[in-house]
Design brief:
The complex is a heterodimer of chains A (164) and B (781). With 164 residues, chain A is α+β, with helices and mostly antiparallel strands. Chain A folds into 2 domains: 76 residues, Ubiquitin-like (UB roll), CATH 3.10.20.30; 73 residues, [2Fe-2S]-binding domain (DNA polymerase, domain 1), CATH 1.10.150.120. Helices cover 34% and strands 15% of the residues of chain A. Chain A has 5 helices and 5 strands; from the N terminus they run E-E-H-E-E-E-H-H-H-H. A 5-stranded mixed β-sheet of chain A has the order 2-1-5-3-4, sandwiched between helices. In chain A, strand 1 and strand 2 form a beta hairpin. In chain A, helix 2 packs across helix 5. The longest helix of chain A has 19 residues. Chain B is of the alpha+beta class. Chain B folds into 3 domains: 152 residues, 2-Layer Sandwich (Aldehyde Oxidoreductase, domain 4); 338 residues, Aldehyde Oxidoreductase, domain 3; 202 residues, Aldehyde Oxidoreductase, domain 4. Helices cover 29% and strands 24% of the residues of chain B. Chain B contains 21 helices and 28 strands. A 7-stranded mixed β-sheet of chain B has the order 3-5-1-12-9-10-11, sandwiched between helices. Chain B has a 5-stranded mixed β-sheet with strand order 7-15-14-13-8. Classes of the chains: A alpha+beta (164), B alpha+beta (781). Chains A and B meet through helix 2, helix 3 and helix 5 of A and helix 1 and helix 19 of B.
Chain lengths: 164, 781
């Protein structure tokens, strides 16, 4: 029997009837229409389905939608205001941190969680932060560069004078 | 060509804004009103007779609309799935493959029934309720076992398991070996690999019986070929079938050939009268999407004591799986490229394609060239080691240096400078410094090794004569169409397909420069058979730029020719008296008399055109290249092997490659990063494992199949030289597969160099800690 799920998705409060066995990723994609979150492996290795749940990265293909009751969920579509780009999105673009782009939303979300906690991650810390995400195209070289570039931009952005 | 501004520039990718914001359009992102969901009932056995299928419990489940089996599909589909001649035209046995098994299943994962339901969860439930009665048959898993006369047969009605057995003779092999002062032999494995595109396969189809129109959305590298095959099987005119491959999440060769579901989903839509979508799970993907490699080589090399290479004799036993892959015999090109960048008096290569009860193998990134390169580079190192020569010295002694260079099998390398890439790689990698450090490390009992791989590949498929013969009719040329619209924007269509390669950007750079328009004025489209030229040939074999880019260039030049004639008419000058610079035609010596190409385009849709000129400004061009293209390079890898655990750590990786002229260096570097990563993955981590007794796939999830993470991958140091191809006027070669072709040999040569002091001369892939530890244990005995 469907149950009521109340969540906030990308800032929008929602209430939906959801079957208990529906995975969070399918709720986001098919009920909310947010298809930027992808399924790559079904078994939590690839991280293509990574979203932020109350700010923490979770693999939405390994979580039931109803387990998110009351949570604030951020998907790739909600990372930046409409029409804008998050520094990570800009950096992935500028550093050629993506090729086919299928894994990219998951990488960006996992990196966003990393940078929220660590404003200047070392190579090793980037490795730990992104070890749950797989990319088949880039060899991770430019993903690493993009995360560093984004961290730099975010640090500089913080110290920049407002309205200056 | 106009003054070049964009060609060669590091232009940011135009495809990225949608992909970084979650607005890409992959197959599963598409839906239709009334969409239904298909799931596939697959054989759990590697080989069995199907005695009966009872779908009653499944069909009784709420939401289940139908269960279809081979009986149903035979009403809709005819014929068998295609097998091309490729490099083994004389086949001995080609078992017919219908998209769904009827009475005999021949590999684990082969479809036996499909369920269609109103929701994906119900479809998955119903799969478990379809009761199939099987009578297991003996299965053959190991291709070398399958060669034996007493082996179980992969198909009960087959004569044996031999798909092909042919020998390429490249020179007088007996004479070459008669001169030998030393000979080395080696057995070299190429493990099976799962291509593992991050987006699995997926198909959505909608058939309309009222006007007999079929639209198929699928994750494919070449939707035109799939349309050709599916329209034929369904008996629908090709013109009424539309194939769409929008954003595709990686291919690596695994999305070239047609798959059972490419037929079953459209047929199910026709049977049901509703749109149907099927999305492959990851386990289905590792189990049923083609595998790459899967070969066993035995090789013998003959040389003089001074290091002069004489002859190479090899046998490739190629594990076909249960059916021939559509382009499976392409992998025999490992034989034709086994001589690498060297001069040999003779090469003799026998290829045997062997049927086993496993999923078919087919081209996977590099497709035969990684195997050929790995074999050649291992054998050259083995010869050097026997002679006590430095691996660099033996390479220099035997490099081909005069171009065009014809190899032993009559293939003509267009241009090259193998010393140039090697010199630069030695310098950049600090080769001499590493040799010193290696000596110091050895003094401390540490296992440090340095591996060199100097490689060449055949790509840019290809010239019409050999490629038409290889496919059985259709030449792998490329088609492009350019439409210069009245308001000045340009719609360009090309028959290649990008799934990460960035063609929207690089191809637009070529067009914008050629037509003298801003990059933003160019809209590059591909992947939809309803648009552009009548046929597109797809993307594989590092062909897109050298063939598709050239088709766009020639179409652009046709546009320019017509625009020039029209501009001359408008300016009352002779066409030859016009200059074309910065997007405008002007009369030589009178720059005030000028028309922009946009003004000319608008005029082309109006009245008062020159005598005999038709309205419009558009062109279709097919480019048939005179030769393949031949990129090359030198990779140097340094590793340290842990004496206790056998773990390999890459200390340094340097790649100096040459793909001719470069359109966008950022994209070229990205292709190399990814290509090297995929080959390092083969060298050290990945292997599809089947249990040899039961034929069960052991590595059926990403937990067991080790796609490397960010923590396993080296950051390579890259550089390049530029030796333009004389084959095309852009002077370009290909780069998509280069890294994958080069890297495994560099890594394994380094591992073997590290382990040489222990008396270990060869290590197979993946060079896992387990495998190396075993070798070290044996060596210590």
């Amino acid at each position: 029997m469907a149950e009521t799920l109340r969540v906030t998705v990308n800032g929008e409060g929602r209430s939906d009837q959801v079957e208990p066995r529906v995975l969070l990723v399918h709720y986001l994609r098919e009920v909310c229409g947010l298809t930027g979150t992808h399924v790559g492996c079904d078994t939590s290795q690839c991280g293509a389905c990574t979203v932020l749940l109350d700010g923490a990265p979770v693999k939405s293909c390994n979580m039931l939608a109803l387990q998110a009751e009351g949570a604030e969920i951020t998907t790739i579509e909600g990372l930046a205001p409409p029409g804008g780009l998050h520094p990570l999105q800009t950096a992935f673009w500028q550093e050629h941190g993506l090729q086919c782009g299928y894994c990219t939303p998951g990488f960006i979300m996992a990196a966003a969680a990393l940078l929220a906690e660590n404003h200047d991650p070392s190579d090793e810390e980037i490795g730990r932060g992104l070890e749950g995400n797989l990319c088949r195209c880039t060899g991770y070289v430019n993903i690493r560069r993009a995360v560093k570039a984004a961290a730099r931009a975010m640090r500089e952005g913080e110290s920049a004078p407002v309205g200056g | 060509m106009a003054v070049s501004q964009l060609i060669g520039a590091r232009v940011q990718r135009r495809e990225d804004p949608r992909l970084i914001t979650g607005h890409g359009r992959f197959i599963e992102d598409h839906t239709l009103p009334g969409l239904t969901h298909m799931a596939v009932v697959r054989s759990p056995h590697p080989h069995a007779r199907v005695l009966g299928i009872d779908a009653s419990a499944a069909t009784a489940l709420p939401g289940v609309l139908a269960v279809f089996t081979a009986v149903d599909f035979h009403r809709i589909l005819s014929g068998t799935m295609p097998v091309t001649p490729s490099f083994a035209p004389e086949k001995k046995y080609v078992p017919g493959r219908f998209p769904i098994a009827d009475q005999e299943v021949c590999f684990q994962g082969e479809p036996v029934a499909v369920v269609v339901a109103t929701d994906r969860y119900q479809a998955a439930d119903a799969v478990d309720l379809v009761h199939v009665t099987y009578a297991p048959l003996p299965a053959v898993v190991d291709p070398e076992v399958a060669l034996r006369p007493d082996s179980a047969k992969a198909h009960v009605d087959g004569p044996d398991n031999i798909g092909w057995d042919m020998t390429y003779d490249g020179g007088d092999i007996e004479a070459a070996f008669a001169k030998a002062e030393i000979r080395v032999t080696e057995r070299i494995l190429q493990q099976r690999l799962a291509p593992t595109a991050m987006e699995t396969r997926g198909v959505m189809a909608s058939y309309s019986p009222y006007d007999e129109q079929l639209t198929v959305w699928l994750s494919s590298q070449n939707p035109h070929f799939i349309r050709l095959f599916v329209s034929g099987a369904m008996g629908i005119p090709e013109s009424r079938v539309r194939g769409v491959s929008p954003d595709v999440g990686g291919g690596f060769g695994s999305k070239i050939s047609p798959y059972p579901e490419d037929y079953l989903v459209p047929a199910a839509s026709k049977l049901l009268g509703r749109p149907v979508r099927w999305i492959e799970t990851r386990t289905e993907s590792i189990m049923t999407t083609i595998h790459g490699r899967g070969q066993v080589f035995t090789a013998e090399a003959a040389a003089l004591r001074d290091g002069t290479l004489l002859g190479l004799r090899l046998t490739q036993v190629l594990d076909l799986g249960a059916y021939h892959g559509t382009f499976g015999a392409f992998q025999a090109c490992a034989c034709l490229m086994a001589g690498g960048v060297y001069r040999w008096e003779a090469i003799q290569a026998r290829t045997i394609g062997v049927l086993t009860n496993k999923v078919p193998t087919d081209p996977y990134r590099g497709a035969g060239r990684p195997e050929g390169t790995h074999l050649c580079e291992r054998m050259v190192d083995r010869v050097a080691q026997e002679l006590g020569m430095d691996p660099v010295e033996i390479r220099r002694k035997n490099f081909a240096r005069e171009f065009p260079f014809m190899n032993n099998f009559g293939l003509t390398y267009d241009s090259g400078n193998y010393d140039g890439t090697l010199d630069r790689a030695l310098e950049l990698s600090d080769y001499q410094g590493w040799r010193r450090r290696q000596e110091e490390a050895r003094g401390q009992g540490r296992l440090v090794g340095i591996g060199v791989s100097t490689w060449v590949e055949i790509c840019g498929l290809g010239p019409s004569q050999p490629t038409a013969a290889a496919t059985g009719g259709i030449a792998l040329v490329e088609a492009a169409q350019i439409r210069f619209l009245p308001s000045g924007s340009v719609a360009a269509y090309v028959g290649t397909h990008a799934h990460g390669q960035g063609h929207d950007t690089t191809f637009s750079q070529i067009i914008a420069d050629t037509l003298g328009v801003p990059l933003d004025a160019v809209d590059l489209r591909h992947g939809d058979t309803a648009e552009g030229p009548s046929f597109g040939y797809g993307t594989y074999g590092s062909r897109s730029l050298a063939v598709g880019g050239m088709a766009l260039l020639t179409a652009s030049n046709q546009i320019l020719d017509k625009a020039r004639r029209l501009a001359a008419h408008l300016l009352e000058a002779a066409p030859d008296d016009l200059e074309f610079t910065a997007g405008a035609f002007s009369v030589k010596g009178n720059p005030q008399a000028s028309k922009t190409i946009q003004e000319v385009a608008f005029a082309a849709y109006g009245a008062g055109l020159p005598e005999g000129m038709e309205q419009g400004l558009e062109a279709v061009s097919h480019f048939d290249p005179p030769n393949f293209v031949w990129p090359f390079g030198a990779h140097i890898c340094v590793v340290e092997v842990d004496r206790e655990t056998g773990a390999v750590e890459i200390q340094s990786y340097t790649a100096v490659d040459d793909c001719g002229n470069v359109i966008n260096p950022m994209i070229v570097e990205g292709q190399l990063h990814g290509g090297i990563a995929q080959s390092v993955a083969q060298a050290l981590f990945e292997e599809v494992v089947y249990d040899h007794e039961s034929g069960q796939l052991v590595t059926a999830t990403m937990l067991d199949y080790l796609v490397p993470t960010i923590n396993e991958m080296p950051v390579p140091t890259l550089d390049r030289t530029v030796t333009p191809s004389p084959t095309n006027s852009l002077g370009v070669k290909g780069i998509g597969e280069a890294g994958t072709i080069a890297a495994s040999a560099a890594v394994i040569n380094a591992v073997c160099d590290a382990l040489g002091p222990l008396g270990i001369h060869h290590v197979d892939m993946p060079a896992s800690p387990d495998r190396i530890w075993q070798l070290m244990q044996e060596a210590r005995r």
